[in-house]
Amino acid sequence: MSEIYTDEQIRKLLNKINEKGDVEVSPQFHKRVQDTLNSLPQRRSNRKRLAKVSALVASFLMISAIAIGSLNPTFATDIPVIGSVFKHLNNIQNSIYDDYAVGVGESQTSKGITVTVNDVAFDGKRVIVGYIIKFEKPFTFKDIPDGWEDKIFAWDELKLTIGRNRLKAYANTIYGQYTDSNTFMGVGKYDLIAPNPEDRTEDVTIPQQPIDAILKISMISDNRKSGLDSEIKGKWNFKFQLTKDNAIADVKVVEPKISVKTEFGEIKFNKVRISPFSTDIEYEAPQDPILGGYEYNDDRSYLSPGIWVVTDDTGKELKWEAEYGLGLKAPKNKEDIIPRVVKFTFANPGSKYINISSKLKSDKSPRFEVKIPLE
Length: 375
Hints:
The protein is α+β, with helices and mostly antiparallel strands. Helix content is about 15%, strand content about 35%. It has helices at about 5-20, 25-40, 45-70, 85-95, 245, and strands at about 100-110, 115-120, 125-135, 150-160, 165-170, 175-180, 185-190, 210-220, 230-240, 250-255, 260, 265-275, 280-285, 310, 315-320, 320-325, 340-345, 355-360, 370-375. The chain is globular.
């Protein structure tokens, strides 16, 4: 016969685990554990009632173990899927987000789809969210349109306030992989900027206290059909915290102040921000006088960072990911040069420089090439 534990013994067991330092849980989770234990009836005499409550406690302990595992990847290393999404996807995305991850483990179900914000990582500008998305109806991989096997589309918005800075971001595409006929594990990358250009600043000061984040998803594509027919509208709303102590990645900023001349004007490389999450290049470039902004016609398209070839000193190619303006106000004239940030994937740790070159398809040699030191 299985040994029966009293509520007090269970509480001591959980506290003992915490004292050993094997498991780190958030105060919210610990409170949830205590509230659940306090709600259980005291077990003293009635044997049937004793067995029933023992089963309840056993189930609760199993759920607690799984929840703790999702909050602490180390604890759940041997539990498939339940542990860190970042660690699970490391082999296919070569990410190191898991080194900076904070467990959340919050789930919301709407329209037959359960979305779990499993873990998050934060480097002061970019929030990385590890998702587990579970569909109520299973499907075969034949149901998934070509090219959609490694992604899920969503209408989403992340908001948070840091000091007086109100920031927001969208991911729209969650990249990852299907783990079974119901489950997708993926990563959303949210680049935080101020919604209004006049409010934008180059950086924000991260406070010591936790930062409250609100993440809302209003639509998810179930990938079994293409186009609008695949969109399932629902409400998946999450609140979690980003902390300075254990969710801020190591960041280094250099100001190379290097420029290169092109036939259409000068490109200035003002600042490079190196994070384990991305390589951000702040630059200024001439706008296209016909198209305006940073959309370029064929002759000038090599000015677009989207076709730049960027490598670090180990030969690793950094892929274009996002781009946005840093202007305090919208440009009035097509000739205005507005500072911009372009984000590429992360360089290898310890890289001493990155090399940027760009050319048109018809070119035999680059239209420009520049080496930017990272030290």
